[in-house]
Amino acid sequence: MLDTVSAVFAMLLTPLCETILMVAGTTFFSILLGLPLGVVLNLTDPVGLKPRRMLNNVLSRVVNLLRSFPFLILMILVFPLSRLIVGESTGTKATIVPLAIAASPFVARVIESALKEIDPQVLLAARVMGSSTWQIVYKVMIPEAMPSIVAGITLTVINIIGYSAMAGAIGGGGLGDLAIRYGYHRFRTDVMIGAVLVIVVLVEAVQLLGSWISDRMIKKR
Amino acid sequence: MLSLKDIKKSYCGNQVIRGISLEVPQNSFYGIIGRSGAGKSTLVRLMSLLERPDSGEILFDGERADVLKSKALLAKRRSLGMVFQQFNLFSSRNVFDNVAYPLEIIGAKKESIAPRVRELLAWVDLSEKETSPVSRLSGGQKQRVAIARALANNPSLLFCDEPTSALDPQTTVSILELLKKIRKEMGLTVIMISHQMEVISATCNFVAELEQGAIVSVKELKHA
Questions:
Q1: Domains of chain A, start order
Q2: Which residues does chain A have within 8 Å of residue B90's beta carbon, measured at their own beta carbons?
Q3: By CB count within 10 A, which of A99, A141, A221, B51 is most buried?
Q4: Which residues on chain B are in Cβ contact (under 8 Å) with A117?
Q5: Are A132 and B74 inside 8 Å of each other by CB?
Q6: pLDDT at B83
Q7: How confident is the model over B93-120, as pLDDT tens digits?
Q8: CA nearest A158: which of A116, A88, A95, A210?
Q9: Considering only CB atoms, which chain A residues are within 8 Å of B106?
Q10: β-pairing, B157-161 with B2-11?
């Protein structure tokens, strides 16, 4: 029994590292793309600091379109782009490309709604003091909304973990790939259970860490 | 100091400010009183250059300010201070960092920010609260932080938009005393918007009455 458990966990180690790499890379790139997009969505809103109805409508539609795309189809469609950027269309690194494209609009909405929660009177105070729009964004809006942003990013990371497991179905690597190849195709229920358990622990750890950081920020205020 | 010349402002065809002209003398404590919906908030937004009038002129020391754009507009705003009813402090910053904000945005050096912030906190009697989160302060203390923040860049003019409306009577008295002291010792011009005549009469030496977007009377008071 112990031998089986240790053998399964030895099998899980490399896919776990791949999943962590995929999730970390995707989180980084989705924040890189989603943060400015969310800020622009908030600023250009009809009640934002720089209302631009047309631009806001276009960006909003693009975000909605990308969010409504089924992930597996998006991943297949993005294969050529992954090949162009990473040099391959499957595997851990290649999967970061569709994962980041799928997660960025989610991050953008998270940022947009976190920024909307800020009291408009606080932004008014920053404007009265002669802050530029950029100063208001990075010195007031983002710090004020940080606990909500952290909570939203935590949710995003958990979604990315789910997507990364799904990506395993079409050669994405990581724990999902292991669960499909061994657990499903080779009827290794022990591997399937092991992979699911590790994913559950990973999600739980991310949630605990995210909540801890967010709570700490709120308590400091 | 500040002159308004026949300024008008409408929103969606509804005229909120109907040709207001005012002369606010240097170093005066100028009160503007009016009921809810009289146009006080719009007037203060126009005077603090947050909005442009549809017509008319806003002059600071004889120079047009309503036509300023981009960097010149930001620079002008930085020479004004403003205190709000709900304090509008930044919850992500402690007391010190709230007061430091206006200095940070003008690019002041770190070594010059600390002494200035400490000087201002001493002025408002909050030196011992430097590292406190603003959420742990009382209403009066929050307003004192807001006053210190408004004074950080040595403004020539301080706007006070209903600064005591969210405070109890005792704290109101102490905040009004502080504003009077600041005006006197720093040589500031203060414009206070309020719907409470007792607040205006306790501090101001001029009062303009605003009704339906127009000034109906201007009186000189003997106080302050």
A1: 2-220 (1.10.3720.10)
A2: 122, 126, 140, 143-144
A3: A99
A4: none
A5: yes
A6: 95
A7: 999 999 999 999 999 999 999 999 999 9
A8: A210
A9: 130
A10: unpaired
Residue to test with chain B: of A122, A129, A131, A136, most B Cβ within 10 A: A129
**B77 close contact with A: CB closer than 8 A:** yes
Q: Give the mean model confidence (pLDDT) for residues B20-31.
A: 93
Q: What single-letter DSSP state applies at residue A129? A: T
| DSSP-assigned beta bridge partners for residue B24 | B2
Question: pLDDT tens digits, residue range A126-160?
Answer: 999 999 999 999 999 999 999 999 999 999 999 99
Among B7, B153, B27, B160, residue whose Cα is nearest residue B82: B160
Could you say which DSSP state residue B49 is in? Answer: T
What pLDDT score was predicted for residue A168? 82
β pairing state of B63-64 and B157-161 = unpaired
Asked whether the beta carbons of residue A221 and residue B92 sit closer than 8 angstroms, the reply is: yes
- Min Cα–Cα distance to chain A from B203, Å: 24
Complex-level ipTM: 0.90
- In 3-state terms, chain A is what percent helix, strand and coil (to 5)? 85, 0, 15
Domain ranges within chain B, ordered by starting residue: 1-79+155-224, 90-154
Asked if A127's CB is within 8 angstroms of B77's CB, the reply is yes
Are B88 and A121 in contact, with CB atoms under 8 Å apart?
Answer: yes
Both structure tokens of A109: 């909405």
Q: What is the pLDDT of residue A75?
A: 86
| Confidence class for position B223, pLDDT limits 50, 70, 90 | low
Alpha-carbon gap: A128 to the closest alpha carbon of chain B (Å): 6
Work out the average pLDDT over B42-56. Answer: 93
| pLDDT higher than threshold 60 for residue B159 | yes
Partners of B91 on chain A (C-beta within 8 Å) are 122, 144, 221
With CA atoms as reference, report the closest residue to B40 among B220, B149, B143, B191: B191
